[in-house]
Structure formats: structure tokens, C-alpha cells
């Protein structure tokens, strides 16, 4: 075979194709050997070429770090109210004074005025008085991460008015702080739901596909019933059964279980179909003759054959669960006040007056859309990376 130097990725791929079938053929890119690489290495090499997926991983890591350290990043508590500051627009941060001189981050004093035509209260900047924005300023002690008492807040003004980066709601609560606190429930509820959905779907689908017969019929009829039932009414019925006096933790786990119980049917049906086609393969028959147990046959030999689908299903199921919790909370059947999630924040912003007069209360919806898009980008990257017919 003609020897080629290092060139473009197309040249390297051509060498791989030209060397197919030659024992011991080794083609490398920057020291990475394709023919001696494992399946996971090949998947990673293809996944890292999906730029959107790599960016999505970075964005999601940033969002999850914000959720974990919300206590340290928010200037106020989630339910802290400021009397007289209801429906205040987002703060305008200025870095220069009236003469154009650099003065650092600061806000001007806000004065309340009433529009004589609409009788709406407005906040107008008073350029004669300026408050510098400070970092790590003293504040009332509050519980932070792992129960540690925190006696400071990340930013704010030492005297005078509060600083609302995303504005305030109709009760004078900081929308920025509430959005960050809400991300904890909305983003982490997805992992709990996906784990249970994955376990239910793979286990029951694997049993139905491997055993067949009566067991297969019973499990598939249950799946058919779940798929045929309208999702929203079923959600509402199950969520309405949650007692209103339950704690936030109990409600969180109850919603996680509800979303998991309703979401495993499609995965179970796919797993069952794959196993039905694989259980008669020669290598499966050989493993069965050598005494492999059903659990080993399914977990060791069958499931890895469609691991690409399982990986993509997980990445899609996470935003599905996030949207499920958001929908339930938006309908008033999920997380209840004083706890906050993106759904409860959007429920407070469902009136038409919010869209017209205080659109900043819809900012949590941007976080929902952004999170779902990032998970979908990762799912696309994993699908392309796990596709055996895609090119390196």
C-alpha cells in the first residue's frame, strides 16, 4: 500500500478504509491507533468532532455548577421579600459616571413614580445619587451548602436599595435568586427520573424479549396501556394524589417516581424488540450452551449491541423529565410553594399582564429551553458517535 504522510482527516480515513482486512494494520492520527482502539475510544474520537455537543457539555456543566452553588451566587434568599420594591425592572449596571469616567459597577438610586394614565408604579433612575456595587458584603446569616452558615452575599450595595439583576416579582422577591435556586429541583429531578426509567425499561424489556411467551404478553399489554393513555391527564391524576402537606423532599421523590413510572414504556418496547432479534444469534446460542445465565446473556452479550440507542435515550429522557416537572409545577400539581422550581416560577408568570408589563418574570423559561437544547445536542453527538456506519 502506498505510504502517505499525515494530512487531512479525509486522507487518514481513506487509509483506514484501504487497510481494512489487513491483519495488524495500524493507522494513527497524532499517536491514536484506530485498529487497536476499543469501541469506547472510537466513540470518543467521533464524538469530539461534534462541536455543538462539546459546547453543550460545557454549558450544562456551567448550569449544574450554578445550581449546586446557588447559595454562594445569589444575593438574596429565594423567598426574601422587599417591601416597596414590587415589580421592579431589572437593574441597570453602570461602569462610568455622567462624565464618562470609569467608576466601576454601580447602580443609580431608583425612585417610585405613578403613571397617571395607566396608574402603574414605575421605577425611575435618579442620576444625582449613585450606589457602588460591592462584592462579599455582610448580610444576615443564612444556611448555605451542606448546612454551613453564610453571613455574606456575593454582591449588592452596602446601603440603600436592593439590586435585582432579573427584576422582582409582584411580591418584591428577586427573580435572579429564585431562578438559580429553582434550577436545583428542575435540573436534578431529571437524573433521578432517568435512572428509574432506565432501570424499569431495560429490566422489564429485557425480561419480555428474552423469555417471551406469557411474560412477554403481560408486560407488552401494560406498555400498550401506558402508551395509549393521554400523558397530561394521567400526570394530573397521579400528581393530584400527592398530599399537599408533604414536605418538599417527599414531593420531589413522588414526582420523580411518577415521571419514571410513566416514561419507561417506550424504552422497554425497544429493548424487547432488540432482544427478540438477538436471542437466536449464533453467539448467543453458543453462550447459552456453555451455561451462561440469562442475566449474563442480556447484560454481557445482548445490551452492548444497541448501546448507542440506550445512550441517546438517556440524554433525551433527561430533558423530557425536566419538562415533565416543569409542566406539573406550571399546572399547580408539582412542586408547591415555598419551594421553587422553574415550573413554579413560570406559573407565576402565566398571566397576560406579565407578558405585557413585566416580561422579565419569563426569564426562567429561557433556562428551560437552553437546558433542553443542550441535552438534545449531546444526544445528537452520541448518536453520531455510536453509529457504526458513520465515518471517522
What does this structure look like?
By secondary structure, the protein is an alpha+beta fold. It has 3 domains: 1-37, no CATH class; 83-169, no CATH class; 177-386, MetI-like (MetI-like fold), CATH 1.10.3720.10. It contains 15 helices and 7 strands. It has helices at residues 9-18, 39-47, 51-68, 70-73, 175-211, 213-228, 231-240, 248-263, 265-278, 282-289, 294-302, 307-330, 342-347, 352-357, 363-386, and strands at residues 28-29, 32-33, 94-96, 102-114, 121-132, 134-143, 149-156. It has a 3-stranded antiparallel sheet, with no helix packed on it. The chain has a two-stranded antiparallel ribbon with strand order 1-2. A two-stranded antiparallel ribbon has the order 6-7. Helix 7 runs antiparallel to helix 8 (248-263). Residues 1-31 have low confidence and may be disordered.
How many helices does DSSP assign?
15
CATH topology of the largest domain: MetI-like fold
Please tell me the total number of domains. Answer: 3
Give the N-to-C terminal Cα separation: 20 Å
Largest β sheet strand count, sense and barrel closure: 3 strands, antiparallel
Low-confidence stretches: 1-31
Strand content: 5-15%
Q: What general form does the structure show? A: elongated
CATH architecture of the largest domain: Orthogonal Bundle
Which range best describes the helical content: under 10%, 10-25%, 25-40%, 40-55%, 55-70% or over 70%? 40-55%
Helix-strand topology string: HEEHHHEEEEEHHHHHHHHHHH
Class computed from helices, strands and strand pairing: alpha+beta
The CATH first-level class of the largest domain comes to Mainly Alpha
Amino acid at each position: 500500500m502506498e505510504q502517505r504522510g499525515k494530512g487531512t482527516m479525509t486522507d487518514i480515513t481513506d487509509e483506514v478504509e484501504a487497510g481494512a482486512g489487513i491483519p495488524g494494520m495500524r493507522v494513527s492520527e497524532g499517536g491514536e491507533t484506530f485498529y487497536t482502539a476499543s469501541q469506547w475510544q472510537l466513540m470518543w474520537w467521533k464524538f469530539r468532532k461534534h462541536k455543538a455537543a462539546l459546547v453543550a457539555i460545557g454549558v450544562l456543566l456551567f448550569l449544574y455548577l450554578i445550581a449546586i452553588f446557588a447559595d454562594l451566587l445569589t444575593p438574596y434568599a429565594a423567598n426574601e421579600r422587599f417591601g416597596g420594591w414590587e415589580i421592579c425592572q431589572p437593574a441597570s449596571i453602570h461602569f462610568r459616571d455622567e462624565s464618562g469616567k470609569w467608576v466601576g459597577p454601580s447602580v443609580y438610586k431608583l425612585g417610585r413614580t405613578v403613571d397617571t394614565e395607566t396608574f402603574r408604579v414605575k421605577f425611575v433612575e435618579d442620576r444625582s445619587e449613585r450606589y457602588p456595587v460591592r462584592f462579599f458584603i455582610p448580610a444576615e446569616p443564612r444556611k448555605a451548602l451542606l448546612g454551613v452558615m453564610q453571613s455574606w452575599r456575593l454582591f449588592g450595595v452596602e446601603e440603600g436599595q436592593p439590586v435585582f439583576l432579573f427584576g422582582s416579582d409582584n411580591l418584591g422577591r428577586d427573580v435572579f435568586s429564585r431562578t438559580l435556586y429553582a434550577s436545583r429541583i428542575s435540573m436534578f429531578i431529571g437524573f433521578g427520573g432517568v435512572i428509574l426509567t432506565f432501570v424499569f425499561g431495560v429490566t422489564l424489556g429485557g425480561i419480555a424479549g428474552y423469555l417471551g411467551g406469557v411474560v412477554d404478553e403481560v408486560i407488552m399489554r401494560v406498555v400498550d396501556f401506558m402508551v395509549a393513555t393521554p400523558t397530561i391527564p394521567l400526570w394530573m391524576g397521579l400528581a393530584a394524589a400527592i398530599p399537599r402537606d408533604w414536605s418538599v423532599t417527599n414531593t420531589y421523590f413522588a414526582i420523580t417516581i411518577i415521571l419514571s413510572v410513566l416514561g419507561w414504556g417506550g424504552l422497554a418496547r425497544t429493548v424487547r424488540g432488540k432482544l427478540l432479534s438477538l436471542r437466536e444469534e449464533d453467539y448467543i446460542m453458543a453462550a447459552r450452551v456453555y451455561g451462561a445465565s440469562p442475566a449474563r446473556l442480556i447484560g454481557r452479550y445482548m445490551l452492548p449491541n444497541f448501546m448507542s440507542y440506550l445512550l441517546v435515550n438517556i440524554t433525551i429522557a433527561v430533558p423530557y423529565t425536566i419538562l415533565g416537572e416543569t409542566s406539573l409545577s406550571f399546572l399547580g400539581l408539582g412542586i408547591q410553594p415555598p419551594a421553587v422550581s422553574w415550573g413554579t416560577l413560570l406559573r407565576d408568570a402565566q398571566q397576560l399582564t406579565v407578558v405585557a408589563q413585566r416580561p422579565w418574570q419569563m426569564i426562567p423559561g429561557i433556562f428551560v429551553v437552553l437546558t433542553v437544547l443542550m441535552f438534545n445536542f449531546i444526544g445528537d453527538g452520541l448518536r453520531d458517535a455510536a453509529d457504526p456506519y458513520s465515518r471517522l
